Amino acid sequence: MPVFAANLSMLFKEYPFLERFAAARKAGFQNVEILFPYDISARDILVAMREAKLDLALINTPPPNWTGGDRGFAAIPGGEERFRHDFKRALRYADVLGAQMIHVMSGVADGPEAQETLIENLNWATQLAPKQHLTIEPINTTDIPGYFLNCFDLAADILDAVAAPNLALQFDAYHAHMITGDVLGTWAKHGHRAGHIQIAGAPGRHEPDNGDIDYPAFFRQIEADGYQGRVSAEYHPANGTVKGLGWLKAAH
Q: What is the dihedral sign for C-alpha 138, 124, 7, 28?
């Protein structure tokens, strides 16, 4: 079955952030991801991660002030300088922490100019860091109104335009359901591009065994297709993290 990761920005919030690593390991995870680690010392995170014997699957590009802040800058015309500054900061964190992937967030934008801006920024980023794996992720506009990269076909077009070996699709099954209503069909069309997967129940974005997505079938399909990346639990626990981990035990 897939190799699962815990998103420590959303799971184990019963604990202070640096204590979540040990809690994740105790719960059975060997990999974690962090949305925005930038408000905490990378060295402190590295110590907590090493003590828990965990690997870091993914971080997002800034901003760190996510609540009420911008949703990225990579597709914002005129925001190239801010994007490139923030991307270099993400690279420094990824280098210290050994992050396998950096998710490049496009931000709220629209139109052909935004698409061209995103392509140009991704060309720059993939060339600046050829050994660092990057991802782009379609995100539904219910969760983030106006988010530019809100379509899997659009993501495919951008991946083809950049055509960089270190850039892949981040396939979030929750967002796929919200965007297309057909997770397995969307995976069949676009899964070959995926370098990272995220899961959550839909609707509600709670545990993946609660909702309309048939995750056992999805897990069987990605295994049959030979997917080699991580599958990260990125959801809001409905009633405490550990109480809701029955899906993880069932998957094994």
A: positive
**Which one has a higher pLDDT value, 210 or 225?**
225
pLDDT category at 47 given cuts 50, 70, 90 is very high
Tell me the pLDDT tens digit for each residue of 150-179: 999 999 999 999 999 999 999 999 999 999
In one letter, which amino acid is 23? A
193, 156 contact by CB (below 8 A): yes
| SS3 state of residue 140 | coil
Residue 193, amino acid: R
Neighbouring C-beta atoms of residue 96, cutoff 10 Å = 15
Q: What is the pTM of this model?
A: 0.96
The catalytic residues are 137, 234
Alpha carbon of 188 to those of 3, 71, 232, 233: distances in Å? 20, 28, 19, 21
Q: Which phi and psi angles does 103 have, rounded to 5°?
A: -85, 120
Summarised one tens digit per residue, pLDDT across range 95-148 is 999 999 999 999 999 999 999 999 999 999 999 999 999 999 999 999 999 999
Distance in angstroms (rounded) separating the CA atoms of residues 197 and 99: 15
Rounded (to 5) percent helix, strand, coil in the chain: 40, 15, 40
**64 CB-contact burial (10 Å; exposed 0-12 / middle 13-18 / buried 19+):** middle
